[in-house]
Every structure is written in C-alpha cells, then in structure tokens.
Specification:
The structure is a single chain. This protein is α/β, with parallel strands linked by helices. It has seven helices and nine strands. A seven-stranded mixed β-sheet has the order 5-4-1-6-8-7-9, sandwiched between helices. A two-stranded antiparallel sheet has the order 2-3. α3 (about 75-85) crosses α5 (about 140-145). The longest helix is centred in the last third of the chain and has 12 residues, at about 180-190. It is globular, with a radius of gyration of 16 Å. The mean pLDDT is about 90.
Length: about 200
C-alpha cells in the first residue's frame, strides 16, 4: 500500500566523514543501508528520489539522484533539494542511516496530517527530523530561511508548528541512527541478542 499524491525522498548523505566511508554502501543483515531505505520508500510511494553528494549513485541506481542545491546547510539542504524536485502534494523524507525503520512509522505520520503543516516523528530523544512529511507549500518558508542562513531544521519545524507524532518506547529501536561504524556493529549485536 502506498500513499496517494506523495513522493518519497531518501536523504543519502554526503561525505560521511564520521562514518569513514559512504554510509549508503554499508551493510546490515546482508543488505546495503540504501537498499533497506528503498524498501521502505517503495511502500510509501512509487515516486522515489535520492538526495546525495555521492555522484557515483547515478550510475548504479534506477532512481533519480540529486545533489544539494545549496551545499553546506546540513539536513535542511537535503529536504530543500527534495522539495524542489518532486511532483506530488506531499513528500516523505527518509534517512539512509536508520536500517530498522519501516513504512508503518510513516503510516502513523500520514494519519496525523493537519492542513499543510509538516509532520515529524518524536521519540524520547526528541524530534526525528529526518522521519517526516512535508507539503509542497512548505518550500517557500524553507527557501527564505536558507537565504537568511538559518539552517536549524528543529527551529524551522517549531516555527512552522509541525505536527509532532510521539512513538512509544517499543518503537524506539526503529529510530536507531548510524553515525559511526561502531553504531552499526552495536546495532548488529543488539539484534543478534534479540534486544529491542
């Protein structure tokens, strides 16, 4: 089941300095992180795009790949680029580095839409800005902030009165984020031991 009038954008990152190599190529349970994100994206929409500074992706993947229109402004730049390159009313943003994330999370977000406000997941750690829905009308607001070099995505979500969807403790593991190779190894250990 996919959402009507919704595209999915995978934010596949840039140089992955902290990780030490392109994160999208790292494997979890025998699949690349990018492939795991594509599985989730394909359950959200038939229209998928990838935002990445890794130019070699263009040659190895069937989906359109876009580089940040405005480099150097972090995750907000990825969302801004995606909002400039999709053709639906809504955009689902997915990170490439949460390998346990599933489409059910986005179904919960989709149900909580109010008008054209962004919708974002929230866990005990706080707002999970890369697990979010954005309406095409949000582009002008973000564009103005980028022009003024205001790149805090958390501040922008607050200013736009984003709908924050809380997820219970049993869902927290799905938001496990891979920043370092050690994080990936830790997650593999947790899953192997049957941890949540």
């Amino acid at each position: 089941m996919t959402f009507l009038n919704c595209s999915a954008a995978i934010i596949a990152g840039g140089k992955s300095k902290r990780f030490g190599s392109p994160k999208y190529q790292a494997e979890f349970n025998g699949k690349r992180l990018l492939d795991l994100a594509l599985i989730v994206a394909s359950n959200i929409s038939h229209k998928i795009l990838i935002i990445s500074g890794q130019t070699e992706l263009n040659a190895v993947i069937e989906y359109p790949v876009y580089r940040d229109i405005v480099p150097g402004c972090g995750p907000l730049g990825g969302i801004y680029t995606a909002l400039n390159n999709f053709d639906s009313d809504w955009l689902a943003v997915l990170p490439v580095d949460m390998p346990l994330l599933d489409a059910e999370i986005y179904f919960h977000l989709w149900k909580q839409r109010e008008d054209q406000r962004p919708v974002v997941a929230k866990t005990k750690k706080g707002i999970e800005s890369m697990v979010s829905l954005w309406h095409k009308s949000n582009l002008s607001f973000i564009e103005e902030r980028i022009k003024n070099r205001q790149w805090s995505i958390y501040r922008i979500l607050n200013e736009m009165n984003a709908v924050q969807v809380n997820f219970p403790p049993k869902k927290q593991i799905q938001f496990f984020n891979i920043n370092y190779k050690e994080d990936l190894e830790l997650l593999k250990t947790i899953r192997k031991s049957g941890g949540e």
